[in-house]
Amino acid sequence: MSSGTVFTIAVNPKIPPRLLRLEELANDLWYSWDRSTRSLFSRLDPSLWATVGHNPKDFLKRVDESLLLRAAEDQVFLANYNSVLSAYDSYHSEPVRNGATAGLHPDDRVAYFCFEFGFHESFPIYSGGLGILAGDHCKAASDLRLPFVGVGLLYRQGYFFQTIDNLGNQRVTYTDSDFEDLPVAPVLGDNGSEVRIEVEMPQRKVVVKVWQAKIGHVTLYLLDTNLAENSPEDRDITHQLYGGDRNLRIKQEILLGIGGVRALRAVGIKPTIWHINEGHAAFMMLERMRNLVQEGLDFASSLEAVAASTVFTTHTSVPAGHDHFGDDMMDAYFEGFYRDLEITREEFMALGRVRGSHDFNMTNLAIHGSRFQNGVSKIHGNVSARICRDLWPQIEPEENPMAHITNGVHVPTFLAQEWPDLFDRYLGYEWRNNMCDTDYWSRISAIPDHLFWSVRQTLKSQMLYSIRARLAVQISRNHGSEAHLDRLLRFTDPINPNILTLGFARRFATYKRATLLFDDLDWLRRIMLNQDRPVMIIFAGKAHPADVPGQDLIRRINQVAQLPEFEGQLLLVEDYDLRLARRLVAGVDVWLNNPVYPLEASGTSGMKAGINGTLNLSVLDGWWGEGYNGKNGWAIKPGPENMDMARRDKEESRDFYETLQDHVVPLYYTRDKLGYSPGWVKMAKDSMISLLPRYTAARMVREYTQKFYVPASRQGALYAADDFSGAKKIAAWKAFVRKTWEGVAIRRLDTPRKRISFGDAVQFDVAVRLNGLQPEDVIVEMLICRQRNKVTLREFNHIRFEFSGIEESGEHLYSLSLTPDLCGKLDYYIRVYPYQLLLTHPFEMGMMVWV
Ligand SMILES: *Cc1c(COP(=O)(O)O)cnc(C)c1O
Which of 105, 331, 667, 735 has a Cα-to-Cα distance from 583 of 20 to 30 A? Predict the structure, then answer.
């Protein structure tokens, strides 16, 4: 090699006219879930396809002209090309009748904000679960033809590439994306020039470029500050996902929230429903309120108007995980805002606080500014209701507005191709129209066991090929010998994939306890190293570069993997991303998850595994708490939350070992003469039958639509009608209730009876001091339920008292005559709370007084 400078010039092929629509396919993330589109590219040049990281747009810039010319005249290729285009055109133009949008108006539009979006490995603007969930939400919205747009940031550096050295140290490499190669395009205005917006930051304005990506029917708008007009510091706002310090974080969140609203305005989109996925985007409400205040609405009414049409989904299980900023920072960035909203600094800060708190917390802001809130699994909904209880101080967490909608995964993205082929044959093509029909999927049991098993084995074998290829690169980079590599790969035989294989892959955050299985290494040895019934475990995952304990987990796994007896049976594979995830979840036999209960908000990788017939062995936390039904996998019961951590680890790891040794291993190796275990196949089928229709993004998006989007549209319209008369009315009413509520009291007048006979009527009388409220401003009610252990308030029947007159003392009398239709011991409570028809949730005021 000479010592001169090397210059590079890219020579882009000319796409032959016959194949011109390849460019269209490369610019629609439809390819992220349509495998035949991806194969179309990869078949042209498989090795280039791998080199460009499965990126169709980049591929088209680098593929050899001669290959394109040949393909343009190759009947086989053209037939393939035509069939992909025909599917693509059907997806984009044929009508669908799925009822998913029932209740929405023609001009309704959902705007969905998120800090990261994960569609495909070729589009690196995601880090993990949150982003992939957001991507799946958009994909399902497209499938269902929901009127829907996404809003996010276009990072030059998405998450990092990971390598792991011999000592188990994680090395990170960030590379800059060239936006030319990503499936994005600048949004152009009417005059044909690129759309720019501005966002104020202290003493300056930041100019923002708006990009768009096409996800089937959905448009995702992405913001970018890397422009010559901005200072170097401001250009870096969109430099890196989850990089930098608190200052960068607040700038990114201002950009997403405030810039996002402006970008939608600039492109002429008028959302009627606003959904923020996690608190990062909560500043969005401030901008919307500012717009209303500028139009002449008062602050309190603008808050009501904005909140009525806003949905907030929280994903965090620990209060410390909620984003928050110090007052000095808020002052620096939002000083102008207090004035624009025509409120004091204290009123402004209150939006981000609850009783006694000091920081400005994005979750508090998100809840103050939304009327629809949810966690992402049943358990997590309850946990979030507890974490956020102070926002509704007089309401028991089990009754407060924090609801739950359990996550789902986009089935076309994560269901391995072999399954649709098999379903087409055994269920008929219309299975695609029955994705959420729980009864329909029991038909899977009619698939012959040996065919079912052969799909499972095919997927496992594909996974083993990938793992072998990755490990070969990994070992050679770490200067391992051929002999070493052979030893490492001796259990990964794709031709004969008959060793029970467990997978554990996710972010290496400490609460996910990646090393729990190492708690008793001797026991683990006895389970894994049995010659007749060996077990292999594959680990993969990234730790955030600032997460030192997370990186220790990687070193620990590496250390155990290098113990001579585990070599080859315990594998650590680097650079976990969507591609490896798709392979692993479908290809291993058992998917492990052992978080510290209740810290796994949902977890979605286990769903991806379950829909592919991979069996879950997990702690009953997150989604598995409701997904497990006793016969579709295995469950570890978490120890009590108040038990000390070391003991809990001990107990739960013990439970893991016992389950593996007594159930998982014997079931897998009890093979019949055809070479597989009928009991295993039965369980894998049960897993698909029970999980496939339930844990899909289609079900999730339908649930968001019916529970939240439709009511949010209705409330938003109701509050905005007649020059915001609804918003004004509810704001004024709430202000009055807040002023008077402290003086409201309730007492019982009748003498409680201990015992009555069935059929007897009982009269209950209470006196309420309304302190200036009107009788119609409150509801007085009885909650009654048969006495039982552990009933929750939600199980009680509610019976309203009638207003019956005013006492001389000024108290209002309410009475109820009740003839119980139940026998036995009944528990009941009596309470009063403020009520107004315009309220979105009956307890959104957070006020209640009990007798
Ligand atoms: C599904 C997925 C996740 C989320 O996994 P959890 O089970 O929530 O930890 C993270 N990373 C990738 C690449 C995924 O595909």
Answer: 667
